[in-house]
User: What shape does this take?
Amino acid sequence: MIAIIDYDAGNIKSVEKAVQYLGHECITTRDESRILGADRVILPGVGAFGDAMERLSEYGLIGVIKEVCSKRIPFLGICLGLQLLFEESEESPGAAGLGILKGSIRRLPDDARDSKGNQLKVPNIGWNSLNLTGGGRLFNGITDESFVYFVHSFYLDAADKSIVKATIDYGVKVDASVEAGNVFACQFHPEKSSETGLKILENFLNV
Assistant: This one.
C-alpha cells in the first residue's frame, strides 16, 4: 500500500491517479497508523512553504514524517514536498522546514538568463532537461537530458551535494532531485512528465 500524505496541498489527486495507473494500491490520508503502516509514502504538494508547514503541524504530521524517514520506509517528496524536507526557505523567512535533509530553498533570480543570454521567466513553468549526476535509483533506465515538467519559483540549494542526483540550469544550478538512504525527492512533477515521469515514479514504487 502506498500512502499519499493529505495536508490540503495542491496536486495530490494527480499523484494518486499516476500511482493507480502504474498498478499500485494507494490511499490519501493523514492518519498516522496508515502512514506508518504503508510500504511507501509520498509527500506531494503545490503551495507556499510556510503555509504548508503550518498545516503539517496542525494535522500532527511533522513527527509522523520524521518517523517514516527514521524507520527506513521509502519516502518521496514531490515539488513543495521536496522543499519541505529541508531546513528553511526564502519564501517564508523564519519558518522552519522539516530539517530531515540539510540545505536551503532559495528564490530563482529575477534576472536569470539562459546560456544564450535570453531572459528566463520566474516562475519556471515548463519542460527542462535533467543533468543526471549518477547513481540515482529514481533514474534507472532514464537517459541523461531527459525532459521533465517543472512549476516553481524557489529551488533547492542542498548543503551536501553528494545527495544530488539530478540538476537543471535555470540561470542558476537547481538541485532538481536528491536521494539520501530511503528519502527521495524531486523538484519536478513526475506525475506530469509523460513516460519519463511515470518511469521515475515506477522506479520509486519498486525501490
